[in-house]
Amino acid sequence: QVQLVESGGGLVQPGGSLRLSCVASGISLSIYVTIWYRQVPGKQREWVADISRFRITNYADSVKGRFTISRDNAKNTVYLQMNDLKAEDTAVYYCNAVAGPRNYWGEGTLVTVSS
After folding, report:
1. CA–CA distance, 76 with 64 (Å, rounded to integer)
2. Confidence tier at 94 by pLDDT (50, 70, 90)
3. What is residue 80's three-state secondary structure?
4. Burial letters 13-38, b for 16+ CB under 10 A, else e
5. How is residue 32 annotated by DSSP?
6. Which of 34, 29, 17, 32 is nearest to 81 (CA)?
7. Average pLDDT score over residue span 96-112
8. What DSSP string runs through 82-109?
9. What confidence score (pLDDT) does residue 5 get?
10. Residue 67's closest CA among 28, 93, 106, 98?
11. What percent of the chain has pLDDT over 90?
């Protein structure tokens, strides 16, 4: 059974940092494109960043220069390092792994940026 489990969310002050983790079981993230999305209640899910099999990374303009996506194949984990967090980064963050027709989602982890 395939599972993606996100962790690392929480409450942080503006300007602070968090590192989200997406741990996979049942698949190897090294052969998937792994994508981080985020969603604020009542709004559409927003693409944040992705990392390919070959570790090519892409970022939304809103997070470029502040967030870094990376992958540890030995731990079968993709990370999202988030620095200089802003109130508008508050959302539930989801991990998504895609390879052709195979598409898996985690349950999400809540990030709240507030003073």
Report:
1. 24
2. very high
3. strand
4. eeeeebebbbbbeebebbebbbbbbb
5. S
6. 17
7. 97
8. E-S--GGG-EEEEEEEEETTEEEE---E
9. 98
10. 93
11. 99
Among residues 80, 21, 19, which one has the least CA distance to residue 48? 80
Identify the residue whose tokens are 């996979």: 24
The identity of residue 93, as a single letter, is: Y
pLDDT confidence band for 16 (50 / 70 / 90): very high
Nearest CA among 67, 89, 93, 107 for reference residue 12: 89
CA dihedral (28, 67, 63, 87) positive or negative: positive
19 and 81 in contact (C-beta within 8 Å)? Answer: yes
List the structure tokens of 14.
């503006």
